[in-house]
Amino acid sequence: MALNIRIQIERFPIAGAFTISRGTKTVAEVIVCTLVDGDHSGRGECVPYQRYGETVDSVRASIAAARSDVVNGVTRDELRQLMPAGAARNAIDCALWDLEAKRDGQPSHQVACQLPPRPVSTAFTIALAEPEEMAAQARAASNRPLLKVKVGAGNDAARIHAVASSAPNSRIILDANEGWNDNNIRQNLLLAAEFRVTLVEQPLPVGQDDILRDIPHPVPICADESVHTTDNLQNLTGLYDAVNIKLDKTGGLTEALDLRDRARELGFGVMVGCMVGSSLAMAPAVLLAQDADYVDLDGPLLLARDRSPGLTYSGSVVSPPRPALWG
Asked: Which one of 78, 94, 158, 184 has the minimum C-beta count within 10 Å?
């Protein structure tokens, strides 16, 4: 029986709204790629991201355009040569991982992980808002060990103070989503150090981050939008202390594993992050995150409802996926 591919758009309402420096969303739109081979099937979920020029329609078209290669048995390594990194390739790559696991009777973690996977603790995101509202979000999440705080829209000093005061026992990552500039970055980094911030993520716009080579890093700085694949790493040495690896940027788990390993070789810390998606999108990333320095896989926690079956979250601790979900 020939391999068949199905493409489905799904929408998951977000609990409230999710706001960063670039805008607000209330629904997570995802695309699920399902590969069917006789009695076995594998799924991969991706999240199209407008920041990278992706839309639901463009990603769906890209997956559809790869149909002939997929049904003719393209391998995960061959897929990297046929498609650019991004959401479309991620959906197919993760579906191939899942299909291989189901067809071979060998869990994906036996290939992706050196040791049996364990639960990992994830950050929880505090969305960008006025300081008083962010303080309320932080108080509600103050029992969580790590908060990822969205900043980058001006008046960040008040936001940082509000969150740090409202969750004094939580470690904090600041994520500016390219929202700082060369006029305020030094002051903001010193403020982050004053409040004992653990990490600052992508403070400057892509292409304007050379300044990071010439200024102090009182807090470690992590690249996000500036890093997609292994090819980006060499240009980031001396600028960043860590890199945020997301499957929708790398174009799947296959490239993400190589990116993680190469980042370690070059001395970068490793963060494993996500777009806002369901448990199906997070599942392969949990395997990638087994030895990460920072984990940010809270996508399902931000949804009003997740898919079922989904990942198991106990507070901020997420367990590895079960085969019924993925892998």
From this structure: 78
Tell me how far the alpha carbon of residue 131 is from its chain's centroid.
25
| Domains, the chain | 4-106 (3.30.390.10), 112-318 (3.20.20.120)
Total count of residues recorded for the chain = 327
The whole-angstrom separation of Cα 41 and Cα 4 is 9
Q: For helices 156-166 and 185-194, what crossing angle results, to 10°?
A: 10
The residue-averaged pLDDT of 186-208 equals 97
Q: How far apart are CA 62 and CA 114, in angstroms?
A: 33
Alpha-carbon distances of 263 from 235, 240, 287, rounded to whole Å: 12, 11, 17
Q: What is the pLDDT of residues 217-255, one digit of tens each?
A: 999 999 999 999 999 999 999 999 999 999 999 999 999
41 burial (CB, 10 Å; 0-12 / 13-18 / 19+) is middle
**Which residue has tokens 């980031």?**
236
pLDDT recorded at residue 36: 97
| β-bridge pairing 269-272 and 120-121 | unpaired
Q: Following DSSP, what letter does each residue of 214-269 receive, concatenated?
A: TS--SS-EEESTT--SGGGHHHHTTT-SEEEE-HHHHTSHHHHHHHHHHHHHTT-E
Look at residue 254 in the predicted model and tell me its pLDDT: 98
Give residue-wise pLDDT tens across range 3-48. Answer: 899 999 999 999 988 888 778 899 999 999 999 999 999 999 999 9
Residue 303 has what DSSP assignment? B
For residues 48 and 57, give the distance between their C-alpha atoms in angstroms, rounded to a whole number. 9
From residue 121, how far is each of 69, 124, 276, 314, 317 by CA, in Å? 38, 10, 17, 9, 4
What pLDDT score was predicted for residue 83?
A: 98
